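User: Can you write out an input/output pair for a complex, sequences first and structure second?

Assistant: Here is one pair. Inputs:
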Amino acid sequence: MKVRTRLLFSTVFLSIVVLLINLVVFVSGQRVNQANQKEILANNIVRDASDLNVLTDDYLFYKPERAKQQWHIRYAMLEKLINTQEISDPQTQASLDKIKKDLDRSKTLFAQLTSTDMSQNKHATATSEKEERLIGQLKINSQLVLSSALRLSSEALHEREVIRQNTDLFIFSFIFAMVLVTLITFYFLYRAIVGPITNLSSVAKQVHKGNLSKRTVVKARDELGELAATFNSMLDALEESHKDLEKKVQMRTKELEASNKDLEAFSYSVSHDLRAPLRSIDGFSEILQQDYLARLDDEGKGVIKTIRNNTHQMENLIDDLLTFSRLGRKPITTQTVNMKRLVHVVYADLKKANPSRKINFSCEDLPTINADPALIKQVWINLLSNAIKYTNKQQEATITVGSKTEKDKIIYFVKDNGAGFDMKYVYKLFGVFQRLHSNADFDGTGVGLAIVQRVITKHGGKVWAEGKVNNGATFSFSLPSDVAIG
Amino acid sequence: MLDPKQIHILLIDDDQSLLRLFGGYLEKVGFQMLYAHNGDEGREIARRLQPNLILLDLTLPEMDGYEVSSRLKKEEITKHIPIVILTSADISPEAEKLFKETGVADYIHKSVQSAELIDRVKKVLNAS
């Protein structure tokens, strides 16, 4: 059965029960009302009948005309009371009829009595016996009326009590049935809803954890069963597309790895094959410069110098390219690196190559780190040589090396007051062969920062730069501090 | 001290300009130079003319430098001649090991400057 049907069924049933209870309460209210009216009527009859008795006694003792008139008035009231009643209950009607009959008899007796009294003076002794008999009959008759009325009253009381008890019983049974049916309905609803939902939720949790192979159980043929079936087929589709995606990713990764390898092999062999002819160009132009200089005019000397400068530039380029492509092939081997000592060694070497430069160099305390020492050394060489190179037009060059320890990483930076760069082109800085300055201003190959980025990325870190034209630059790199010591 | 004029050096390289360049450096200080463009030619000259030293390029056509050197070392008539390898590649630890196994006297990167080249050739000659 569908959950909707069950809910509809239980709602309709409960509504019917509530309606029935209302009906019972209404009907019993009506009947209680009837009993109350009957009681009131009986009580009125008792009151009027008692009054008639009192008036009869009053008349018998004193025989006043007033009592006789009052008796008739009271009788008329009582007769009217009984005659105006609309009684549907036959038992009550029978009681009333009996009362009416007795009353009629009382009226006849009372009339005989009063007529006897009018001739009392003429036949005083003859009538007294008849009078006695009439009085006796009248009294008995009055008593009959009274007792009938009293019985009617007690009947009404009893009826009311019975109605109340029955009503209570009905209402109690209905409420009991209602509670029972509600409990049963809810038990089945609970089983039909909570079980499948718990199942569904536990499978959904598994899916959340990444396990796509779990399926929920489909038992019921209701809405939840439909939901579970839909959920399962959704998981089927998800799992399939996931597998598909994984396959695609694997394929692409393989393709990428292959093309990466090809690219590296290519750049390696190109650089390699470029070196030999370059060596000849350099060697022969050197011979020309050394042995034939006297025979050249000034322009010829200039040309030779240009050839040699360009040759050296190209040698540097090839060396950098070789270093760059070597980085891709070599796995990193980490050990503890004393960064401060390394920076000082690198800086001393670079300073030796630029003895004429005046540089304010300062290096803060740097935390040691686990890294590939040769590669990290290359990073410092590239960053510091850049800083030295791009400050060479400054009267007084200032280069600062520092670090910042964050929650899960350490940031190292090199700050200079050199030529800087336009932040517009910052995204170009770390690309291979990308340069923001011309060779005429600052020579270079455009590979140095690409090497820095490659090394740091291989270590799981990041590189970035901030700068302003003619206002210095700061190059930063972060390394994950789970490899940091101290 | 040895007299360069008495010393014959065989230079084997397929690159004509490099033959001229390195040959020029060594001739300038007085060495007698012999030239070969490939391994077979080099071995032939070595057998017949018995040079005092062989400078051997690693990347030769057909038969590479490793093979030429190991063949030279196997032949009775040439095995005494010291061999110096010339290479334009970075010398990896594996390559270094290979050189030692084949009995190579030294290995020189082609980016070497003339003075260092002469220096190292002289060192090998003195040792032999």
